[in-house]
Please model this.
Amino acid sequence: MYRLTTLLLLTIVPISYVHSQTQEATTEHNPTAFGISAQFYPAGIIATINVDKFISEKSSLLFRAGVNLIERHDFSEVNDHEDGFGIGASIGYRKHFPLKKGHILAAFNTDVWNEWINWENDMSPIDETSGTTYTLVLQPWLETGYFTGVNKSSLQYGLTAGFGREINVITDGREVAQGWIFSLLLHFQYIFPHH
Model:
């Protein structure tokens, strides 16, 4: 838990500095968006609840918390089969660029996941070996996509793509997979207060 807290602080402090500098430059009231997202990638699905706090008209800080359902099939280079689940949180810095009735999003995010991975090898009745590994995963990634509103209401939805890397910072047990990750995300959010 101490290591997880340290990793989050190392990520939050630089972004918090950007936040404070931006707050000094503007005194206007900025909205906050509350929402959910589903993130689909080849080895699983991530479901999160999100808070997107605008720090200026075109910049915001994203905070997420959620679960990671993992099914790596035969993607792993170190085990015959891996599956499991994780819980974690993330922080991100977003830039918003107006386009027609919505906006283009460009973001940098950092996730921290506690994952429990079940692994199996030599899957035959005689030679099969299996076990569970705990990993603390650091996942920096870039995101871009498009958000638009539902008529003129405070509801928005968006479709984005992400690209980053899973890094096993702590591994307790047999080595499990890590590496590059590509994902597609579907977002729904409510902006309060509405512009």
Summary: DSSP finds one helix and eight strands in the chain.
